Fold these 2 entries.
Entry 1:
Amino acid sequence: MADFIRNPVVTLPDRNPAPHFCEQELAFTEEEKTKIARWVSQYPTPDGAVMWTLWLAQEKFGFLPPEVLRLVGEELGIPYAQVYGVATFYTQYYKQKKGVCVLDVCTCFSCQFTGGYDLLHYLEEKLGIHAGETTADGCFTLQEVECLGACGSAPMLQVSNGPFVHCVTRARADALIDALKAGRMPEFASVTLPQDEDELGGNRRTDVAFCERYATLPIAKHTR
Ligand code: FES
């Protein structure tokens, strides 16, 4: 059950939390700035590049606390509120520090009908945490997410914004956790969706390192 249904009282986040990064750390390198400028040049206005820049910032800093969102806004020359709005809309952007592996369990319609909540609750018990929490050893964060576009392979989950694990059974979830603890992805993960390869020309994901096994790199050519 989504958090807001379980607990309809919403606690607003601290508007001025203590920063996680110091001034010296909060900077893009010249190479990163060049990359961002190239993205900006592809759009009529700089805000068109906000998602790419947030992604780059997340890969660099690990997550997106307010001071990193401010850095992104300053680099693009757009208001903090605009960056914040985009970052908080997508679960794929991490606003808090996460575990080494983030397990996004879909509980939207198709996955819900095929056991998405059973899977979520099974992983909660197995990992000893609730959805939205991180294990004490920092290895796993478990999240409940909306449809990830793999409804035909429900129930499914995604690992750290990368590989999709389709048709997840308890046995498959056990094998996944064991493999991730050992620092590898099991073979059954990362099934490429048909539209990745054909209809969208492999234009679905940006995590190239995870996707080298794909026949078509899942990244749009014009953004490279
Ligand atoms: S409903 Fe789960 S991927 Fe679409």
Note: The CA atoms of residues 107 and 116 lie 5 Å apart.
Entry 2:
Amino acid sequence: MTPKLILIAARGANGCIGRDGRLPWRVKADLKRFKEMTRHKPVLMGRKTWESIGKPLPGRDNLVLTRDPHFRAPGGFTYPSLEALLAAGRAMALAKGVDEVCVIGGATLYEATMPIADRLALTEIDLSPQGDAFFPDFDQTLWTETARETLPRGEQDDAMAVLRIFERRGPSSSSPR
Ligand SMILES: NC(=O)c1ccc[n+]([C@@H]2O[C@H](COP(=O)([O-])OP(=O)(O)OC[C@H]3O[C@@H](n4cnc5c(N)ncnc54)[C@H](OP(=O)(O)O)[C@@H]3O)[C@@H](O)[C@H]2O)c1
């Protein structure tokens, strides 16, 4: 069975996902949910997101996309093309016996994988911060919202957050026909 491809992102009400290489908010409940959703699964990311996290996410295979053949990601793996990244992510998921591969950003990776994603796990942050990275627009008629949950707001959190899950209605463009 081909593992499902899940896009996991947090976006502001204006679509913003990042500023100066960082998240433009602090929402602990979302980080906790992110950890739960990605546990034991391969996480696929662009080089800038890898650098913004600053270290490999523990307990998960960290796969990084970069065109720079000299770039090293200690504790992770690098790939020169989206095809190689996806193939390796799927192979690692199968080897670990998990049924999902997670794309965790940033904007470039979300944009590139949206046409082949099976599920979106989108945390809507109730803020519209200024930023320089945005979640791509997606055609909601192609997706069914299957779950919605308001995350518990911690004392230190900057805003309310709602986790929404969308499943693709038809086959993704990567599905066998
Ligand atoms: N809110 C969220 O959920 C969330 C999640 C993740 C990230 N973010 C934010 O998003 C921002 C980063 O996003 P971003 O779009 O600027 O960067 P990114 O997607 O993390 O990384 C872009 C880099 O990936 C590599 N790349 C992209 N497409 C490629 C391809 N087809 N082949 C080979 N390499 C490719 C290139 O690396 P090289 O330049 O090395 O070639 C490119 O510069 C940050 O602000 C981060 O905090 C937010």
Note: The chain has one domain: 15-140.
